[in-house]
Design a protein that fits this description.
- The protein has helices at residues 2-28, 42-52, 58-70, 86-121, 126-140, 143-157, 170-173, 175-201, 204-211, 216-244, 248-253, 259-268, 272-300.
- Helices cover 74% and strands 0% of the residues.
- Residues 306-311 have low confidence and may be disordered.
- The N and C termini lie close together (5 Å).
- With 312 residues, the protein is mostly helical.
Length: 312
C-alpha cells in the first residue's frame, strides 16, 4: 500500500506540472492581454510587460512561474486587484466556497443514503416510488431553480433565512445555498444506493449472513451497505470537487463572495495569474480526492488489492 501511494503521489506531481503547462500555453493564445485599458499607450504597456516579465519568451515565463509555484508563490493579480498577491485573494474566498460545498456534500450524502436505503428495503411500495420521484426531480431540475424557490419561500416570504449572503448572519447564510446545491448529490446518491442495495439484498452472501442469524439493521449496515459504498464513492468523488470549488450560479443568486465569481472575472479581464492559480487548485483538489478514493476502496473492501501494494 505504501509503495502504491508513493507512486500515485509522484504521478500526481508530474500530472500537475503537465496541467499547469497546458493552462499556461492556452492562456498565451487567448486574444487580448491583461492590460487592455485604452488609456494606456504602447510605451506604457511595454513597461508593464517588462515589469511582470511578460516580454520574455514563453518558455522562460513558464519556468519562472513554475519555480514560484513550487515555492507557494502564485504571483500577483494584474487587473482584479492590481499587485495584490493571489494567495491573499484566494484565501479570502476559497474557505467560503469550501464551506458551502462541504455542507452540500454532507447533507446530500446523508439524505441520499437514507433515501436509497429506504427505497431498496421498501421495494415496490409507495416509499420506493416517492424516493424515485425525488431522485428524478433532483437530477432533472437545475440547482438555480431550487435556489430561487428556496430564496423566495424561506427568505422572502417566511424570512427564516437571509436571501443574500451576509456576515451578520453567517450561519444562516450557508443554509439556502447548501440545500440548493445538495439536491443533485442527494438524487445521484439515492439512485445508486437503491440500485446497489437491491443487488446486494438479493445476493448469495446476504442469504448466508441471514442463515447465520444476522438480521435487521445490522444486516443492512454491516453487509449490504458496505458493499454498496464503492460505486457510491466513485460517483461522489467528482461531485465533491465540483461543489467545494464553488458554483457560479448559486454564488450569483445568493451574492456569495466565493471563488466561482473570481474565476469568471479573471477570465473576462485576462488576469492570467488568477486563472492559472484557481485552475491549479481545482486540479490539485481533484487529484487528491481521487487518490483518497483509491485508498478508501482497499479499506472498505479488503478483497481489492491496489496495484503494487498488495504485499505492503
Amino acid at each position: 500500500m505504501r509503495k502504491y501511494i508513493l507512486k500515485r503521489i509522484i504521478i500526481s506531481f508530474f500530472t500537475m506540472i503537465a496541467i499547469t503547462l497546458v493552462l499556461f500555453l492556452l492562456l498565451q493564445f487567448m486574444p487580448g492581454s491583461p492590460f487592455n485599458d485604452e488609456k494606456l499607450s504602447e510605451e506604457q504597456k511595454a513597461l508593464l510587460y517588462a515589469k511582470y516579465g511578460l516580454d520574455k519568451p514563453v518558455v522562460i515565463q513558464f519556468l519562472r512561474y513554475l519555480g514560484s509555484l513550487l515555492r507557494g508563490d502564485f504571483g500577483v493579480s494584474y487587473n482584479i486587484s492590481k499587485n495584490t498577491p493571489i494567495l491573499s485573494l484566494i484565501s479570502q474566498r476559497l474557505p467560503i466556497s469550501i464551506k458551502v460545498g462541504f455542507y452540500s456534500v454532507f447533507i446530500g450524502t446523508l439524505a441520499g443514503l437514507a433515501l436509497g436505503i429506504v427505497a431498496a428495503i421498501k421495494h415496490n411500495t409507495i416509499w420506493d416510488t416517492a424516493a424515485t420521484v425525488i431522485s428524478v426531480l433532483g437530477v432533472s431540475i437545475p440547482s438555480y431553480v431550487f435556489a430561487l424557490a428556496l430564496s423566495y419561500q424561506f427568505g422572502f416570504k417566511w424570512r427564516l433565512f437571509p436571501m443574500l449572503f451576509t456576515s451578520t448572519q453567517l450561519a444562516k447564510s450557508y443554509v439556502l445555498p447548501s440545500v440548493s446545491l445538495c439536491m443533485f448529490t442527494l438524487a445521484s446518491i439515492a439512485r445508486f444506493t437503491r440500485t446497489e442495495m437491491l443487488e446486494a439484498l438479493g445476493s448469495d452472501y446476504m442469504q448466508l449472513a441471514e442463515s447465520k442469524g444476522i438480521s435487521g439493521w445490522r444486516l443492512i449496515t454491516r453487509h449490504a451497505l458496505r458493499n454498496t459504498l464503492i460505486p457510491i464513492i466513485t460517483v461522489l468523488a467528482p461531485l465533491v470537487v465540483d461543489l467545494m470549488t464553488g458554483s457560479l450560479v448559486i454564488e450569483k443568486i445568493f451574492a456569495i463572495p466565493g471563488v466561482g465569481s473570481l474565476l469568471v472575472t479573471a477570465i473576462q479581464s485576462n488576469d492570467y495569474n488568477v486563472v492559472i492559480s484557481l485552475s491549479f487548485i481545482y486540479s490539485a483538489m481533484y487529484i487528491v480526492i481521487m487518490l483518497v478514493v483509491d485508498i478508501l476502496y482497499g479499506i472498505i473492501d479488503p478483497r481489492i488489492r491496489l496495484q503494487g501494494g498488495s504485499n505492503d
